[in-house]
Amino acid sequence: MAASNGAPLVVFDFDKTIVDCDSDNWVVDSLGATRRFDDLLRHLPWNHAIDAMMGELHAEGRTAEDVAACLRAAPLSPHVAAAIESAHARGCELRVLSDANAFFIETVLAHHGLAGYFSGTDTNPAHVDGAGRLRIRPYHEFAAPAPGHGCALPSCPPNMCKGKVMERILQEEEEAAVAARRRRRAVVYLGDGRGDYCPSLKLREGDYVMPRAGYPVCDLIGGAPPAAAVREWDGFEDLARVLLGIVDDEIARAAVTTTTEQDDAAAMNAAVVGAVVVPDCRALPARQEAALLPQAVRVPN
Ligand SMILES: [Mg+2]
Ligand SMILES: [Zn+2]
Q: What is d(CA 279, CA 276) in angstroms, rounded to the nearest whole number?
C-alpha cells in the first residue's frame, strides 16, 4: 500500500459499471449465440453456462481471438476512463471485483489503456487451454465435493460471493493501517447488480457504496441499507462526478486530520517546554487534553 494522502481504495464492479454492458451477453450476442446460451442457462449455473458456451463456439472454429475482438468493441464510456485516470492521479488505489472473468476484463482494460491503473482484480479465473479453447472457472469452486463460498445471501451466485472477497480486502486494509500506524483509508465500492449487495454490506461507517441508480443493487440497498454512506450515480458522467467528489472529500479530510495532529504535537511540546507551569487540562478541549497525557499513544484504528 502506498503512503496515504487520504485517497480511498476504490473497488469497481466490471459489467455495467466499467463497461456499459454485460460482457458475457455482449460476447454471446456478438457471436450470434444468444439462443443457445439461453438454452444452456436452462440447466446450468451462469458461470458453467458461459464456460460451456465458449466450448461450443470453439468447436465451431471460433477462436479466443474472435472473443477478444468482440470484447474490444464493448462500450466503455470516456467518462469512466477519465474517472479511473483521475482517481489514480489523485492517489487512489483501484481494484476490480467482478463476476465476469479474467480474460474478458484484461482484454477490455488493456484495449482502453486502463490495465495499468489497477493494482488487482478478483474475478472468475480464465485461461486459453492447449487446444485454444477459452476456459472459465468459478471463483469459488462449488460443484460437490467443493464446499462453495458458504454465504447464505440469495443475491450471491454460487460461484462467487463478492462479500467474502470484500472481507479479505478490508482485513488487508486494516492490517496495512496498523502496520503504518494510521487510520484505515476509506473504501469505495461501485456496482449495479444483485451480487454487489453483499460486498456493500461488508463496508463500514466511513466507507462508501456507489450503486448505479435504477439497477438491482439499489432495490436491495433500499430494503436494508449498509453501514457505509450510499452515493448513487446515474450515468457515467455522474459516476465520475460522484466518485471524484468522494475522493476529494477524503483527501481534504485527511489533510485536516494531519494538521490537527501537528497542532496536538505542538501543544505537547509547549507543555514540555513550559514544564514548570503545567497547563490546566480542564481548560483545554478534550482533544488537546488527550495530547497532553503521557499515555496518549496514538493507536491507528
Ligand atoms: Mg455489474
Ligand atoms: Zn455473499
A: 9
Work out the mean pLDDT of the chain and round it to a whole number: 90
Residue 284 CA, ligand 1 centroid: distance in Å: 51
Top-confidence residue, 268 or 213: 213
Domain ranges of the chain: 9-252, 258-292
Taking the centre of ligand 1 as the mean of its atom positions, its distance from the CA of residue 258, in whole angstroms, is 36
Which protein residues have a CB closer than 5 Å to ligand 1 (ion)? 13, 15-16, 192-193
| pLDDT tier for residue 113 given thresholds of 50, 70 and 90 | very high
39 is catalytic: no
CATH topology of domain 9-252: Rossmann fold (3.40.50)
pLDDT digits (tens, 9 = 90+) for 169-186: 999 999 999 999 999 999
Rounded Cα distance, 232 and 215, in Å:
10
Give distance in angstroms: CA of 99 to centre of ligand 2.
Answer: 12
Report the amino acid identity of residue 266: A
